[in-house]
Amino acid sequence: MDEIAGGSRGADLESAHLEFKRAKESFDDTARDLAEAVACFGNSPGGGTVVVGIDEKARGQQAFLGCPHDGQALRRRIWELTNPSLTVITDTTNRGGADLLVLVVPEGLEVHAVSGRAHHRVGTSCEPMSASEQARLVDDRRGADWSADATARLASEVSPLALAAARQLLRANPDQQRRTYGELSDADLLRALGVVSSTGELLRAGELLFCHGDHRDLIVYQFRRTAGGEPADVQRLGTPLLLALQRSIELVAARIERTLILLPSGQQVELPDLPEGPTREAIANAVAHRDWRLPDPISIEHSPTRLVVDSPGPLVAGVTVDNILAHPSKPRNRTLIEAIRKLGLAEQAGVGIDRMYRDMIRTGHQPPQITESDYVRVTLTGGAPNRNVARYVARLPPAIAEDVDAMLVLFTLLTQRTVTAVQLKTVLQKGAEEVEAVLSGLATDEVAMLEPTRQSVRRHMATYRLREQALRELGTAVPYRRRTSDEIDRKIVATVSELGQITNGVVQALLDVKVERASRILADLVDRAILVKTSSHERGPRVTYGPGPRFPARRAAKAPRGRSREDGASRLPLGEDGT
Predict the structure, then answer these.
(1) Residue 65 pLDDT class (50, 70, 90 cuts)
(2) Taking the CA atoms of the chain, what radius of gyration do you get in angstroms?
(3) CATH no. for residue 337?
(4) Fewer C-beta neighbours within 10 Å, C or N terminus of the chain?
């Protein structure tokens, strides 16, 4: 409302959780209009807020028209018009002399309709919900598990190949108990995976994973040699789902290139251009969380540096792209995903998404990009791993290197000089106090990643930056790390004051630059008479430089061996400005 008063239009400020409305002349017309708006928010993740009494197309004070109707009476009428009845929270405020009504709408427990029609929020508009969308929302909010429904199929109808694949996965599982599942009889194995009913019928999860069904595609995999090129390989994978899932993971893994990295410990490791954990989780999550009532296949678009996975159906009710890291695990198909986890094809509950973010960042890649419409898209963008980031993360304490919050903070500071808890709230999907605790933990001497700026060190919530040691180790991974001429001069003068001389190699190590850049820095200092050549060598690594005529006298150089400090200092005349 401050922005509207300042000249913005309300229509430009509306969002998935905010709407501005004009009150109609008639109480009943206003109540019906508001009932439709609040039912729409009630059917959407997170609910929303409706502000009544604003002309959303006007600017400034002219936009504040006011609401002439009683707020409590409207609240009661909205409750009567919605089915099931929806209770909203009402408040009033005065802006520009106009009394406005604010309706806060909680996320509903059911699908709410007005006159038999249900709508939900899509962007800034209310769109009709189809019968399948309503059914999915009801199931999600009630915690119904489609994959747990019994079928008419028996354990004897499962595919021998799918069972053999399950046993192979279980025997390779690091968990001792899971390995024993691989030696069970067919019936006991299906029971251990939780995909049969108490009467021996396959549940939908069991039928989907282990049985041949119709001839529809479950997963369509396409490989392109470049992201925008023509498909070089197309695989259409049908039932049983277990074989389709396993094959799609193998197709991606077989085409991932690897780069050899030397860690600070001296160990050589191969890091993939697309980390295997995130790619596996993206595919397994698409299988486990999609809406299996929809006929569309899961789509996997793969190129050497990019993986895009489209999963039919939106996110489960209550989960959004803005809270997916922080929201408690809420699987749509609990029985199916539990079987997939027991088989070792997905992470344990609640950590798969974290792992995707963490493992992408720790090798210097962008975190996953997740979008939602009538399907959920996960995009992983890889490429050759950033060696500096990989080496730096390898030096961190294991608990920090495994922490997704720490990796998100690090990723942000690769391109941003400073951060605050308030700025990182949406990135970490936590409250400001929680984020401050994360930042202060990374500023301890044990971790030594961050430090508060001098101006903010005494504040309740400080401004943080990477420490100098972290910047040095990350090197070119931090593009904003560009030293000013003054900073370069100070470092070199301090070194010459300490050692009496300097070489190109020392400058390279001191400033983390290459030989050509070090040569240009030294040439500039010689041109400004701060340094002079002090060796007979004209070129090469043996050329040394010492204090020149304009070398700062107050940082007198340590005399080289064989010459007294007084002799060395006497050769440094004052400059015209007295330095």
Answers:
(1) very high
(2) 32
(3) 3.30.565.60
(4) C
